[in-house]
């Protein structure tokens, strides 16, 4: 193997290995904090399987056809998992994953059983792969509705939150990988694997740079000017907040000040100032109090649910955060409150 091939296999294999590690990491994090990370974990796993297949096939064309079929089949879940991840990040209701995943899994299993790659390789190359890439594209197009508002905010110089930057990175990363495989036939088959490695490190770099607030991607820390919010403006904000509370936007686990402010069409600076001046509390405290109130409702009626489940349903990221916030607001643990208010 010449030096050029050694470099190619090193970088492409490094990306596949890192993809697997990151996938496992987000799966572990999901178990402790947020269910959207389950979708991200499996999304990275499917891309890693596809990339690994590309690497082995590029350097060993005699690779087992079973492995080739598995690598191609994994692509059928990339689009649905991307869509569900973005939807779970920006919407309150949990996406119905079984509607998006199970039908495609059944289809690819049936196709792979009746027309296995071993005997129908040409059929897979001409039709199955094209159908999968088309499905992937449709989900990319559908998922763009979650990305469009972020781009509008950035264009309007409203800046990007960490959540927004992360979701942009994931979306355009998956889009770039799709393009790499689509146009790989005109360049090199290994382009998709190299692209995956490149994208992983670019995302990592963006997140690392995000720690320092010096980048133009992010908003500078805003200071209150000396203008007070008028009573009329305060009433407008209060009414708008009431609407979002009725919609239970606070149940979204990763809701940010910027997102909540966007929901009532004011800047995060104005919302923060309103909460401090009119309510005497921070945004985090405001959200946690709303979640605790919802948890109190659940504790009274959901006797068969675990405390952890009630915490997640109330919008908290973890059991410890739920218990700490509940104790701070009520002076009781969730279990103590449930026992005192049992029906």
Provide structural commentary:
There is one protein chain. This protein has 343 residues and is mainly α. The protein folds into two domains: 3-210, Rhopdopsin 7-helix transmembrane proteins; 231-340, Orthogonal Bundle (Arc Repressor Mutant, subunit A). It has 15 helices and no strands.
Break the fold down into its secondary structure elements and pairings.
Layout: H1 3-32, H2 36-59, H3 65-74, H4 78-90, H5 97-114, H6 121-155, H7 162-182, H8 191-210, H9 231-246, H10 257-263, H11 268-279, H12 283-301, H13 307-313, H14 319-330, H15 334-340
Helix pairs in contact: 1-2, 1-8, 2-3, 2-4, 4-6, 4-7, 6-7, 7-8, 10-11, 12-14, 12-15
Give the radius of gyration.
24 Å
The outline comes out as elongated
In what range is the share of β-strand residues? under 5%
Question: What low-confidence regions span 5 or more consecutive residues with pLDDT below 50?
Answer: 210-224
Assigned CATH class of the largest domain: Mainly Alpha
Distance linking N and C termini: 74 Å
In terms of quaternary structure, the protein is: single chain
CATH architecture of the largest domain: Up-down Bundle
Content-based structural category: mainly alpha
The major pleated sheet works out as: none
Helix content: over 70%
- Round the mean pLDDT to the nearest integer and report it: 76
